[in-house]
Amino acid sequence: MGLFFKSRKHEAAAPELPEWLTARDGFPFYIKAPMVLIGLYLFFYILNLLQEIIVPFAFAGLISILLNPIYNRFQKWKFNKIVAIVLTIFLAILVVAGIMFFLSSQIVQFGDMIPQLEKKAIKLLASLQEWLSTTFGISTEKQMSMLDEAVNNSKNYVGRTVTTVFGVISYFVLIPLYIFLLLFYKPLILNFVFEVFDEDNSEQVAEILQETKGAVQSYIVGLMIETSIIAALNSIALLILGVQYALLLGVIGAILNLIPYIGGIIAIALPVLISFITKDGFSTPLLIVAAYTVIQFLDNNIIVPRVVSSKVSVNALISILVVLLGGTLWGVSGMFLSIPFVAVLKIIFDRIDELKPWGKLLGDTMPEDPPAQVVNPREADKEHQSLL
């Protein structure tokens, strides 16, 4: 009997764990998952810690890929290697300097109108205080205390902005230096990438590198063309509506539009705010919102698909997530770098069999035959019953 009950007790033991919870490589899932999370946390912590080094290097990498055809053209013309690199960087600096000169000239005109803007802002603030007092019963003293708190917070923000400005100035020194070194040591870097992998994978590595270079180049060139078109459309719309500083606001709006989904909202807010201060009534702000909405529609449905001819398409959900994550990690720089970074990841994922599902998740191509049991279980049940 003892043996009988012992065997029965053994049979009533706990059921086997699912396969995904078992230890395939020595560690069970509930140990591997925290290890992966800790590893991701340390990875992003290091990225945030080394922001001042990684961000300018990442920008330099993208710009060097963009400038690589110009550098190759100088080398075909039998220029010395160092001379070709210097001329390439000099041309890029000339383009950036031209844009900065245009913006600075517009900002100077904007500065001449600051006293007038201050008077109108004070008048609007007084009207707002009176409306808040009569509508919501918020006393003037309480409003002033809330305003003082907002001013103190803005001072802290200005301090961070000044720090960012000095960081940008340092980038103007680091980025050209990184671009020079990346172009100079390009054969060494490419040779290292090929030697890291087996010779059997050399063709696949070459394909990934070639497609990455083409995707980044087409993406950046497309963005530059798109930005020029949006700047022209914004400026024309604001000029027709009679908004002051139309050229400046149109160009700034086009630059902000480079930040997917979020920059467009800020781009609309700026001219609306200026129109509130410089004009009476609500007709002009409403017309600005309408004009920018039409421009955004044209941008998303016509300009981007035809002009930004990137070879890699990232779906809207992933785009918003990575832009927000990039902003949290590296601020505005992270927002700009997030989309090219994910595009490069998608190229790599699409070329590795184990990672192809992740590449499909990042893309915007819908599956032709998704599992009906998950996507539309009712239709799957009907098909099953009809077969019975």
Automatic annotation (TrEMBL):
Keyword entries, A-Z: Cell membrane, Membrane, Transmembrane, Transmembrane helix, Transport
Name of the protein: AI-2E family transporter
Segments of this protein annotated with the region Disordered: 367-388
UniProt cross-references to InterPro entries, sorted A to Z: AI-2E-like
Stretches with biased composition (Basic and acidic residues): 378-388
Keyword match Zinc: no
Family the UniProt entry places it in: Belongs to the autoinducer-2 exporter (AI-2E) (TC 2.A.86) family.
Cell location: Cell membrane
Primary location class: membrane
Transmembrane intervals: 29-47, 53-71, 83-103, 165-185, 219-241, 247-274, 286-304, 316-349
Domain of life (superkingdom): Bacteria
Lineage: Bacteria, Pseudomonadati, Bacteroidota, Cytophagia, Cytophagales
Membrane-protein topology: Multi-pass membrane protein
Organism field: Dyadobacter beijingensis
Keyword Kinase: no
